[in-house]
Amino acid sequence: MRSIGLIGCGAIGLEIARALDSGRINGRLDIVFDLYKDNAYNLVNVMRSYKPKVAESMDDLLRSDTDLIVEAASQQAVKDYARRVIEHGKDIMIMSIGALLEDELYNELSMLVQRHKRRIYLPSGAVAGIDAIKSVKHMLKEVMLITTKHPRALRGAPFFDNKGIDVMSIKHKEIIYEGNAREAVKLFPANVNVAAVLSIAGIGADKTRVRIVADPSIDRNMHEIIARGEFGELHIMVSNIPSPNNPKTSYLAVLSAIECLREACDDSITIGT
After folding, report:
1. What is the mean pLDDT of the chain?
2. Within 10 A of 158 (CB to CB), how many other CB atoms are there?
3. Per-residue pLDDT reduced to its tens digit, 231-252
4. Nearest alpha carbon to residue 95 among 194, 203, 240, 28
5. What is the pairing mode between strands 68-71 and 2-7?
6. What per-residue confidence (pLDDT) applies to 270?
7. Which of 64, 69, 61 shows the shortest CA–CA distance to 13?
8. CB 213 within 8 Å of CB 174
9. For residues 146 and 211, is the Cβ–Cβ distance under 8 A?
10. Which residues are catalytic?
11. Contact 97, 43 (CB under 8 A)
12. pLDDT digits (tens, 9 = 90+) for 23-71
């Protein structure tokens, strides 16, 4: 049974903790860390079968006997902690995949996992068809991700900071952003991690196009992938129920994380970086 540490005790971290607590995963959550201690203690309090330790600091977590750390916090947490996790001889599962579209960080982490013989696990998130995209990546000519969400799921994104737009005032379906994936994950860090997954699997962050649509008439998070190349065309549509605890995140993204962690803890399954 793998010993697991958790960075980030918000809505996604809580769902991962519950999955571990239920026994569905061959792992044990032994220590949790959150910059907001109340979040950490609230998570510990919902655990029924055992109580993980609350780390007083990131150093406290790194000194633990865990061998797999799950990041469920933010892109900034990946930038701040992922290097140190690997250098301390631990594997890491990254939820905030958008951080990896910074080439310097991606290249450094790739080098570190080779040097320390560790692994990085990346859930596929709120989309389907990533294996298909990977299989034709060298034949791709264009990739477009169209993400459509209710305005409340987009609220708080840095995109709106200097736009003078009250996203909650949008009354009709409206395209609010179109650009490349590298820019999109910075402007909408809590909404389009799927753009990062798609970029890494396919033709990269600068060539992957992203369109974000606000639609007050829907109650689901919609992701459509359109990919064209020498192989033909792929059209993939996913209609996700939002996570019950966080409308910005699709429930499928949470389930994907739980399955990725289950596989990481299963000795019979081999997963690469």
Report:
1. 93
2. 12
3. 999 999 999 998 877 777 888 8
4. 194
5. parallel
6. 39
7. 69
8. yes
9. yes
10. 223
11. no
12. 989 999 999 999 999 999 999 999 999 999 999 999 999 999 999 999 9
- Let me know: does 228 contact 132? Beta carbons within 8 Å: no
Can you tell me the distance from the alpha carbon of 240 to that of 194, in angstroms, rounded to the nearest whole number?
Answer: 13
User: Encoding tokens for residue 85?
Assistant: 């996790």
CA 250, 256, 259 angle in degrees (round to 5)?
A: 150
pLDDT of residue 268: 42
> What are the CA-CA distances from residue 75 to residues 65, 123, 162, 192, 270 (Å)?
25, 15, 21, 12, 26
Alpha carbon distance 32, 13 (integer Å) = 9
d(CA 82, CA 120): 9
- Secondary structure in 3-state letters for 95-164: CCHHHHHCHHHHHHHHHHHHHHCCCEECCCCCCCCHHHHHHCHHHEEEEEEEEEECHHHHCCCHHHCCCC
| 104 pLDDT more than 50 | yes
Q: Extract the tokens encoding 157.
A: 């994104």
For the chain, domains (ranges, CATH) are 2-121+253-264 (3.40.50.720), 130-240 (3.30.360.10)
The secondary structure of residue 87, as a DSSP letter, is H
Residue 175: CB atoms within 10 Å = 12
* Structure tokens belonging to residue 273: 């970086």
3 φ, ψ (degrees, to nearest 5): -95, 125
Q: What residue spans of the chain are helical by DSSP H? A: 11-22, 37-46, 58-62, 75-87, 103-116, 130-135, 151-154, 181-187, 193-201, 251-264
